[in-house]
Design brief:
This protein is an alpha/beta fold. It folds into two domains: about 90 residues, no CATH class; about 150 residues, Nucleotidyltransferase, domain 5, CATH 3.30.420. It has 13 helices and seven strands. The strands form two sheets. The chain has a five-stranded mixed sheet. Strands 1-7 form a two-stranded antiparallel ribbon. Helix 4 crosses helix 13, helix 5 packs across helix 6 and helix 10 crosses helix 11. It is globular.
Length: about 300
């Protein structure tokens, strides 16, 4: 008997999606007239040292170009000067040192579209290298103590594919510890929380119950029903798994939507790589947040629509 032919996906909106890919590299999309009008710092608040010369919008515009084209700070300064010359506008470009210092204190919004109703979120984390060996050297000679990375925690809206919350931590931070930090950033009401087995912890269920969010988290394979009468959502999941099996439980509750968080991480690394350019954690946090904001912009420009063959 011949084996079943494996299906394939076909993009049905290739022309529109192709235009969105072209738009991602458009300079005018990121170096807009609105940013140029607000280039100088307008507020005169009291601060220690010299007052700010450039606005947050000016610093963010250049940092976005830095992330978009994967440039060091000095080359970002040069790109800004060349753009000002080509556009024939009289603006001063911040020095590379100013870009680095202001980046650590910048407040960056993820620029998420507003929602009228509740949303679901899918959460997961991934590692981003800071310094250390590459994959080939590590396989051949092993890793050294200098090899380190940071963890990027994402909360993604599975309906719009937008990143609605993110945090960047050291590699020793557990995924479950960032549940509150992620949910605090989400502006819309959250109905369901999709997470993998790393979030199967009592403190996570307690947080979700307090916020009235339904937990879609697979219990561990050796999970036991609690002594509180089995009324927790985790206990309900354990009973359903025992009755119908883990695979069928995942299909019934829609657990597989959680894979969209991994899709967002794949898109993130495909666009920006798996390395961080900055060495200080405050700058690294702004670097990852800018990447998430840019990725949300990419998402609104257009995503591929698939048809199963």
């Amino acid at each position: 008997m011949a084996g079943k032919r494996k299906g394939t996906y076909k993009i049905t909106n290739w022309r529109k999606y192709n235009e969105s890919l072209v738009q991602r590299g458009s300079i005018t999309l990121w170096f807009s007239e609105d940013a140029i009008e607000k280039w100088r710092h307008a507020n005169k608040e009291a601060k220690v040292g010299h007052p700010f010369v450039y606005s947050d919008a000016a610093i963010e515009s250049l940092l976005v170009l830095r992330e978009l084209f994967q440039l060091p700070y000095r080359q970002t300064e040069g790109l800004g000067k060349s753009l000002a010359g080509l556009m024939q506008i009289t603006i001063d470009i911040p020095h590379c040192t100013s870009l680095s210092k202001r980046a650590s204190k910048l407040g960056v919004s993820l620029d998420v579209r507003k929602h009228t109703g509740s949303i679901d979120v899918v959460v997961d984390s991934t590692g981003l290298k800071v310094f250390g060996e590459g994959e080939w050297k590590m396989r051949k000679y092993g890793k050294t103590k200098r090899r380190t990375w940071r963890k990027l925690h994402l909360a993604v809206d599975p309906d719009t594919h937008e990143i609605v919350a993110e945090t960047t931590t050291e590699n020793s931070c557990h995924d479950a510890d960032q549940t509150d930090a992620l949910l605090d950033q989400v502006q819309a009401k959250v109905a369901k929380f999709h997470g993998d087995g790393a979030y199967d912890q009592r403190k996570v269920y307690k947080t979700l119950k307090h916020r009235r969010i339904k937990a879609i988290i697979p219990p561990r394979r050796n999970a036991k029903i609690s002594r509180r009468g089995g009324r927790l959502s985790r206990d309900v999941a354990i009973r359903q798994i025992r009755r119908h099996g883990r695979r069928q439980w995942k299909e019934r509750v829609g657990y597989h939507r959680r894979s969209l968080a991994e899709t967002a991480m794949c898109r993130m690394k495909g666009c920006f790589g798996d390395h961080l350019k900055n060495r200080l954690i405050p700058n690294q946090k702004i670097e990852t947040r800018l990447r998430c904001k840019i990725l949300n912009k990419f998402t609104r420009l257009g995503l591929p629509l698939f048809e199963w063959n």
